[in-house]
């Protein structure tokens, strides 16, 4: 992971870089650093910790930050602990080359051994310091230009990278290159902005080039961009795109944390995801990516869905939806497992990849593997123009807007909406769903945003429940049927932001093991809404109560039976079974948020995590 940024032009580089780094912290925030260049020299500052720590250090050490070119980095540790030495930028042995890197150099160790034999020394444990010294070695041994040395060295690299490198004697040139990790280049007439995504430079330009894998660019102040293929130095024509990002959407507004804002945005997210795709009065669903590949979906013998984390949970919900409504067998796979087990994928098989960021390394690799085997790959992504969205055969954007909180919330509900539309559309094509069922689900989809809005109003009571349980060490989350993945997602939300251990389980599986955990100290969150195995869940509740477990139940409004048996009830409006995850997940997101908040955690940037997992 990690975020990289750079600037070359006529403006002061420092404010652009430091502010840009703050916007990239979602990619990692365990250390950060900058280098600002001036004639024949540079200032370097790096530190363990967040970007504001870096700012403090620059200020207190009176570091000179005047200069019109510079690079910066915010890190999520892979090689070496988060500390000042391992923070980027990294400098070559001669102090001449300065580099930032996002990705992983898989063969760094064998290169390091060769460099050590040739007298190089290393201050950090990082793979990046190995690469910058390899470039120096190649440059000096062969008397190559920096650009040639970068190209030759990168051809020796196994792994993933987006890099920016500067020679201190030539600070008006920055060389960037990409393989596997994202890299966006903003361009104005006389200046270049480099970043892992375009958000840091949208204030300055809306012209963007997304470098493709295997491309490098030589950026020279005041000159035209020179784009090349890393493999053979072949000159390429850059494709400039226009950015369409609304800055207002990425401010916290009245909310203390982005996560809370994003939870509260979900009624709107649902409407945005449905907009233009569902015409309720006529019951028409339009999804381009499906319509233009109608036959593929009609004839699909099975569908494999590949994703990670929260997107994987949304995919488990999709398994219920697609099997029920479209009657197609569905397998849901973790991208990291799928890509390494030589999966059986045949030509024209249908694979769906799901990713909020569209940059998750394992999901991207799974996509490429499936495409190499001839599969048809459909993508569901939130970030427009992301690597995954650019590599699929067809797809649908979730239109949830920028999700900044590391814990995914609104992207999850948006993914479910896309899957409901998909299942209905394919079900209609395959005649596996009758007209009444189809029309009533379309109608229900039209009112689900209001129901979610209604659930958000129960927040006050969730705060009370959080005060009772914020200190416990373990939580259990139970659900059945389509709400079992919701239990998994609720548990994931709690553990990632509050650091309380939580497990999600299908309620009936409890007696095959987890029931041993239950005593008066363990709170059990159980989704007990009508329509999804209600009677069976009542049996499970009795089992927990018999062992003195504390129960927080998510029930439908008007419920009496469960409400009388449990310690706390959170009421949600009734909806169809297919749409119930959209309302049942809301109290679980709020519960996780409130507990983490009371525990004083940094909700938006939990420890050890990053928003975009661009390393495997
Ligand atoms: C959890 C969370 C992660 C992501 C996972 C996949 O709240 O955010 O589990 O869901 O890293 O990320 P995407 O969807 O960007 O591929």
Number of helices: 20
Give start-end ranges of low-pLDDT stretches: none
What is the first-to-last residue Cα distance? 9 Å
Using the coordinates above, name the CATH class of the largest domain. Answer: Alpha Beta
Task: Write down the overall mean pLDDT.
Answer: 93
Counted up, domains total 3
Query: Percentage of helical residues?
Result: 25-40%
Largest sheet: 8 strands, antiparallel
The CATH architecture of the largest domain is 3-Layer(aba) Sandwich
CATH topology of the largest domain: Rossmann fold
Would you count the extended β strands for me? 27
CATH superfamily of the largest domain: Glucose-6-phosphate isomerase like protein, domain 1
Radius of gyration: 26 Å
For the largest beta sheet, what order do the strands appear in spatially? 3-2-4-1-10-9-11-15
> Bound compounds, please?
fructose -6-phosphate
Model description:
The chain is α/β, with parallel strands linked by helices. The chain has three domains: 3-90 and 162-248, Glutamine Phosphoribosylpyrophosphate, subunit 1, domain 1 (4-Layer Sandwich); 257-451, Glucose-6-phosphate isomerase like protein, domain 1 (Rossmann fold, 3-Layer(aba) Sandwich), CATH 3.40.50.10490; 457-598, Rossmann fold. Helices cover 37% and strands 23% of the residues. It has 20 helices and 27 strands. The chain has an eight-stranded antiparallel β-sheet with strand order 3-2-4-1-10-9-11-15, with helices on one face. Strand 12 and strand 13 (226-229) form a beta hairpin. The protein is globular. It starts with a strand and ends in an 18-residue tail after the last helix. Fructose -6-phosphate binds at residues 308-311, 355-357, 360, 363, 407-408, 492, 496, 613. Fructose -6-phosphate binds next to helix 10 and helix 17.
């Amino acid at each position: 992971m990690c975020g990289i940024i750079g600037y070359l032009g006529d403006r002061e580089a420092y404010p652009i870089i430091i502010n840009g780094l703050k916007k990239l912290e979602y990619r990692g925030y365990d250390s950060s650093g900058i280098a600002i260049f001036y004639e024949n020299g540079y200032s370097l500052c790096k530190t363990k910790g967040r970007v504001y720590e870096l700012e403090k250090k620059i200020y207190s050490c009176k570091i000179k930050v005047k200069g019109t070119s510079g690079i910066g980095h915010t890190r999520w540790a892979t090689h070496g602990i988060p500390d000042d030495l391992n923070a980027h930028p990294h400098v070559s042995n001669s102090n001449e080359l300065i580099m930032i890197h996002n990705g992983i150099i898989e063969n760094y160790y064998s290169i390091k051994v060769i460099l050590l034999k040739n007298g190089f020394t290393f201050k950090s444990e990082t793979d990046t310091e190995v690469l910058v010294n390899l470039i120096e070695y190649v440059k000096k041994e062969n008397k190559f230009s920096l650009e040639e040395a970068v190209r030759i060295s990168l051809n020796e690299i196994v792994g993933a990278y987006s890099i920016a490198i500067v020679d201190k004697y030539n600070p008006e040139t920055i060389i960037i290159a990409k393989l596997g990790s994202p890299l966006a280049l903003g361009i104005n007439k006389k200046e270049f902005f480099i970043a892992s995504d375009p958000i840091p430079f949208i204030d300055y330009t809306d012209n963007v080039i997304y470098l493709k894998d295997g491309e490098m660019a030589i950026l020279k102040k005041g000159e035209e961009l020179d784009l090349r293929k890393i493999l053979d130095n072949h000159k390429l024509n850059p494709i400039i795109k226009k950015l369409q990002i609304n800055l207002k959407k990425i401010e916290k507004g009245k909310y203390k944390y982005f996560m809370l804002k994003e939870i509260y945005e979900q009624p709107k997210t649902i409407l945005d995801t449905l907009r233009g795709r569902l015409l309720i009065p006529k019951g028409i669903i339009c999804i381009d990516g499906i319509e233009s590949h109608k036959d593929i979906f009609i004839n699909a013998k099975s569908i494999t869905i590949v994703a990670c984390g929260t997107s994987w949970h949304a995919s488990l919900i999709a398994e219920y939806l697609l099997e029920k409504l479209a009657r197609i067998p569905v397998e849901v796979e973790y991208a990291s497992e799928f890509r390494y087990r030589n999966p059986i994928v045949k030509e024209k098989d249908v694979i769906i990849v799901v990713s909020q960021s569209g940059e998750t390394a394992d999901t991207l690799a799974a996509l490429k593997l499936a495409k190499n085997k001839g599969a048809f790959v459909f993508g569901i992504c939130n970030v427009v123009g992301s690597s995954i969205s650019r590599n699929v055969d067809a797809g649908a954007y979730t239109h949830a807007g920028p999700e900044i909180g590391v814990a995914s919330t609104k992207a999850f509900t948006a993914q479910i909406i896309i899957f409901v539309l998909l299942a209905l559309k394919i079900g209609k094509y395959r005649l596996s769903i009758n007209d009444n069922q189809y029309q009533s689900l379309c109608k229900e989809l039209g009112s689900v945003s209001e129901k979610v809005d209604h659930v958000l109003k129960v927040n006050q009571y969730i705060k009370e429940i959080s005060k009772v349980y914020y200190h416990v060490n373990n939580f259990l989350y139970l659900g059945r049927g389509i709400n079992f993945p919701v239990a998994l997602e609720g548990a994931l939300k709690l553990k990632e932001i509050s650091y309380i251990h939580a497990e999600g389980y299908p309620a009936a599986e409890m007696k095959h093991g987890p029931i041993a955990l239950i005593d008066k100290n363990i709170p059990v969150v159980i989704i007990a809404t009508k329509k999804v195995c209600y009677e069976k869940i009542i049996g499970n509740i009795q089992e927990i109560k018999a062992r003195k477990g504390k129960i927080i139940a998510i029930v439908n409004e008007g419920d009496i039976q469960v409400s009388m048996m449990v310690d706390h009830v959170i009421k949600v409006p009734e909806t169809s079974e297919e749409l119930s995850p959209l309302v049942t997940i809301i109290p679980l997101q709020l519960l996780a948020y409130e507990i983490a908040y009371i525990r004083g955690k940094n909700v938006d940037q939990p420890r050890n995590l990053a928003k975009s997992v661009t390393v495997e």
